[in-house]
Amino acid sequence: MTPRPSSSNPVRALVTGAARGIGRAIALRLARDAQLAGGARLTLADVHEAELRTLAEALQAMGSRANVVAGDLGDPEVPGRLVASALEAFGGLDALVSNAGIAKPSPLAACATEDWDRVFAVNTRAPFLLGRAAHAALRTSRGAMVVVTSISGTHATSPLGAYSASKAATLMLVRQMAGEWGPDGIRVNALSPGLIVTPGTTAAYADPAVREQREQRVPLHRLGTPEDMAAVAAFLLGPDAAYVTGAELLADGGLAQTLMSSLPMGGWQAQIAATPQAASRLPPLSPSAGGGRTQRPGEAGSAGALD
Ligand SMILES: NC(=O)c1ccc[n+]([C@@H]2O[C@H](COP(=O)([O-])OP(=O)(O)OC[C@H]3O[C@@H](n4cnc5c(N)ncnc54)[C@H](O)[C@@H]3O)[C@@H](O)[C@H]2O)c1
User: Fold this and answer.
1) 270 and 168 co-located in one domain
2) 162 Cα–ligand 1 center, Å
3) Among 73-82, 115-124, 255-264, whose mean pLDDT is lowest?
4) How many domains does the chain have?
5) What is the largest CA-CA distance in the chain?
6) 81 lines ligand 1 (CB under 6 A)
């Protein structure tokens, strides 16, 4: 019989890119969720070793154990070393979070070959090498893997062409691993963030006006937090997602669904504004000097809704 995926929260986990941003929040969330079960056993990987050690102290104060491993995931030897360290430290692995990622903004016409290769090495090759190295251990534990991809994996994002293409490839890698490893009891899913405020996006939000514009573009009218993403990762790794594999969970506040709504609507605009439902969402009317009504835009239009 095919082994069923694990039905409990992960205890032994490896998180890459754990020093900052989304990866750090995921490590803290896994530790918090494991508190009642005696704590988590977390292997934390990043290039920033000092920040990992600070995080490890916070996790230990929460009752978890932490194993810190420094390494550059652009080096093909590193993913296998991280998995080996996690297995040596805690005797197995229930969850693998491939989160570390980089972007090198550049128009494609000017994108250097080494930048393209570096982005693909970290964003696409490393999740593959991590998954391959962890496959046997995850099969034993009937564990789960989450790969942090991006809204840019399905929506071309200029000037992040190499990044966007790398995340698209990584999304397909997730589907491929899910199909091949499902019979082994391993679930593999993608978490695609939208616009999240992290150390990695500081430059994009340095200008408050840009931040405000971006917030207004998101239907939920706010940018995402690392904790928002950690909650989704915890769901995908945990028992409530026991029948979810090969999925992309897009956590973007609705941003990806705004493409058609951002188009100018021409003559439809007046017709829409004339409907009672639309009128109730317009700003309040100001009374005219004669006690009459001020006309709303489109109020004297053809009266019909979309007919
Ligand atoms: N923040 C967003 O808006 C956003 C949107 C979509 C997708 N993402 C994805 O989420 C993931 C995390 O992003 P973030 O915003 O938290 O970024 P971040 O830059 O704040 O944190 C990324 C962490 O990964 C580490 N890292 C980077 N390259 C590494 C390497 N070669 N080897 C080891 N560690 C490395 C960094 O040192 C850092 O600690 C990335 O895969 C990113 O592509 C983020």
Assistant:
1) no
2) 15
3) 255-264
4) 2
5) 83
6) no
